[in-house]
Amino acid sequence: MRKNPTLPLVFASLLLGLYAPGASAADDALELFAGTDGRTQVQTGGRTLGALDVACFDKAWRGAGALAEKGDGPDEQTHLIRMRTPFGAVFKGSIRMAAEGEAAAASLKLTPDKPAELNSLHIAGEFPVANCLGGSWKTDSAEGAFPENLDPDKIHLFGNKAKFLELTLAGGANVRFEFPQPTSVLIQDNRKWSRDFVIRLILAGEGDNGQTYQAGKEYELAFRIASRGGVKLTHDKPLVLVANEEWKPLKTDLRIEPGSALDFSELGFLDAPAGKHGWIQTNAQGQFVFEKRPDKPVRFYGVNFCFSANYMTHEQSDELAERLARLGYNAIRIHHYEGELCQGQPLSTTFNPEKLDQLDYLLAACFKRGIYATTDLYVSRPIKKSELGLPGDGNEGRFKELAHIHGGAFANWKLFSKNLLEHVNPYTRRSWAEEPGLAWICMLNEDNLANHINTLLEIPEWVRAWNAWLAARYETREKLNAAWEGKLKDGQDPAQGNVEMLGNIHSRGDPRQKRSRGPPRRIQPPQLRAHEAVRARRAGLQGAVDRLQRLDQPGRRRVDARALRLRGRPLLHRSPAVHRAGLATAQPLPEHQPHRRRGARRSRQRLRAALRQAVHDHRVQLLRTGALPRRRRDPHRRARRAAGLGRALALRVLA
User: Fold this and answer.
1) φ, ψ of residue 434 in degrees (nearest 5)
2) Angle between helix 594-625 and 526-535 (nearest 10)
3) Distance between CA 483 and CA 517 in Å, rounded?
4) What is the mean pLDDT of residues 390-418?
5) Cα–Cα dist 559/571, whole Å
6) Confidence of residue 68 (pLDDT cuts 50, 70, 90)
7) How far out from the chain centre does Cα 28 lie?
8) Minimum mean pLDDT among 33-47, 100-114, 544-558: which range?
9) Please, how many CA atoms are within 13 Å of residue 315, restricted to the half-sphere of its CB?
10) 78-84/90-100 β-pairing
């Protein structure tokens, strides 16, 4: 048989064609995926090259992007969009992307509702650095390569008007923008702020530099997107699944069948109705107990309801309360409820009768099934400034800061609380204040003043209280200045009420911000500070050890607390592994129940593993913070571990 000498050459040519770098990428069609919000994904060969977005920058270089507008465009290729600038002007318009031969024709139209002063209104193209390095750009007047490294003095690679912009990206992928008339184009090395190269196709404005956009006038940017391999355009459309042989409808029902595997109401958390054993109290160990059953600790397992989730029909409330009981919950939190409760009322301290009835019924439905409740007396209720005796219109957003010290704010909080707690729930025939099912109340949600320290500086009542405190503590200006090491400003005197409040509560170096009691805080070396930070997290495991000590019964092993030490440091930090071991529920078991003793043995094994994990986590934390020196690398460590001759960390927890 005679061999064909041309076959090896044919196969070699095919292989060279397959593996030539960039050969296929350059010839692949450019895939454009146009979204309803004006964003267009640019891909080729299944690889994402970048994306095009409608965006703007104001005079302070604050940015904004477009969003999809409600409604449909005049055709499937046109999407309605809107964009709110940082200073409040709103641009509305459309973006159209349509196939045009082997290219795609794009048209962006935007109209502002008020005069807009912008640095730039544009379509921004973001292309990751990895897709650009090794590539180049070209316009009708200039060309260049994407630099390998960022040059801070040359961030703008190009900035001028152009008739076209062509990008050749890594792998040979090609993207070409063509304009019917010269258009302002910017190419920017954006690695100072992100990991991209950015292009901007700018909609010109009215001024010489194209920065002013007149209200009611339509601004348009038209261009074509082409590629050597052609362009394939796809528009984002709703995906509708229809029941057929491949897709079967799945009926979901959140109701839980009583007695089924999902019915957790028999776990012992529920004891209906709520309040049958009196008020909830705490015992000497800090555990929750009932007033009439103080010897039996109880636990609460609950969920949170916010805003409109607190308001539903009576039927929905019964269904929800029953579902919560079946899930094993015995507590709920009524949160962010006051805004809707006071909706449509002339004052923020009076209630909408319909909403109050819905809230009353929801609580009654929960109490009936043994579910307790907690709530806050202020969270986010809108309060007009005029109600507090403050000047100006609109709502007061600093109520949490004012309630502590402002007479009008405190009176408003007190009146709302009185109206709510003295209100009688018609479904329980008890007022909220007399309801044992309402077990916990938070006076003021998230009122830690450290959260609002900068706001306090603007409130005159806080400044006066600050100066009064300084005057009472230091008596004279001279004593205060001495305590602050001479940093009291000229003319400032607490007796005159003009000493400024301090805005940073975390500073350690300023003598004005020392602790109010005790000696000045010493600045510690980093390792000691790190170790103190670790120590601050060591609270959870100590309680576990104490509970294990109480398991010292016949036939039980005992935990040696001295073993819980790592190089002389007590291991007392909280560990998720220990928490999962269920230490709080461990109880001594009788000797005559061997099947339960086997379960206890498995529990001890899980506990031993959990404590080992806790020690390991603790040592890792010490190493990370520098509080524990790292050990030198042992080249034979793996061999010894494999042979069972040693462990990286040894801890004997159970004797």
Assistant:
1) -100, 10
2) 160
3) 12
4) 93
5) 14
6) very high
7) 40
8) 544-558
9) 0
10) antiparallel
Nearest Cα to 284, choosing from 269, 295, 299, 298?
A: 295
Please say if the pLDDT value at position 476 is more than 90: yes
Side chain identity, residue 160 = N
For 12-48, what is each residue's pLDDT tens digit? Answer: 443 333 333 444 455 688 999 999 999 999 999 889 9
Kind of pairing between the strands at 136-139 and 143-145: antiparallel
Question: Average per-residue pLDDT in the chain?
Answer: 80
Mean pLDDT of 193-206: 89
Q: How far is CA 270 from the centre of its chain?
A: 33
Residue in this structure with the two tokens 């790190």, named with its chain if needed: 530
Exposure on the CB side of residue 91, measured as CA atoms within 13 A: 33
**Contact at 8 Å (CB) between 403 and 388?**
no
CB 171 within 8 A of CB 25: yes
Instruction: Please work out, in degrees rounded to the nearest 5, the angle formed at the alpha carbon of residue 224 by the alpha carbons of 219 and 229.
Output: 160
What are the helix (H) ranges across 103-242? 129-132
Distance CA 365, CA 359 (A): 10
Q: What CA–CA distances, in Å, run from 414 to 273, 339, 382?
A: 30, 17, 15
List b or e across 1-26, with b for residues whose CB sees 16 or more CB atoms inside 10 angstroms.
eeeeeeeeeeeeeeeeeeeeeeebbb
Give the whole-number percent of the chain exceeding pLDDT 70: 73
Percent of residues in the chain assigned helix, strand, coil, to nearest 5: 30, 25, 45
Q: Peptide bond before 273: cis, by omega within 30 degrees of 0?
A: yes
Higher pLDDT, 627 or 604: 604
Which residues have CB under 8 Å from 490's CB, separation 6+? none
Q: How confident is the model at residue 300 (pLDDT cuts 50, 70, 90)?
A: very high
Q: At what angle do helices 353-368 and 314-326 cross, to 10 degrees?
A: 30
Give the C-alpha separation, 351 to 346, whole Å. 9
Where is average pLDDT lowest: 297-301, 448-452, 504-508, 558-562?
A: 558-562
Cα–Cα dist 244/249, whole Å: 9
Residue 287 pLDDT greater than 70, yes or no? yes
What is Dmax (Cα atoms) for the chain? 116
Q: Is the pLDDT of residue 567 over 60?
A: no
Q: Checking phi first, is residue 575 left (phi over 0); if not, alpha (psi -120 to 50) or beta? A: beta
**What distance in Å separates the CA atoms of residue 647 and residue 90, rounded to the nearest whole number?**
66
**230: helix, coil or strand?**
coil
E runs forming strands in 313-369: 331-335
Q: How many CB atoms lie within 10 A of CB 493?
A: 17
- The tokens describing 266, both together, are 């028999």
* 384: amino acid identity, one letter: K
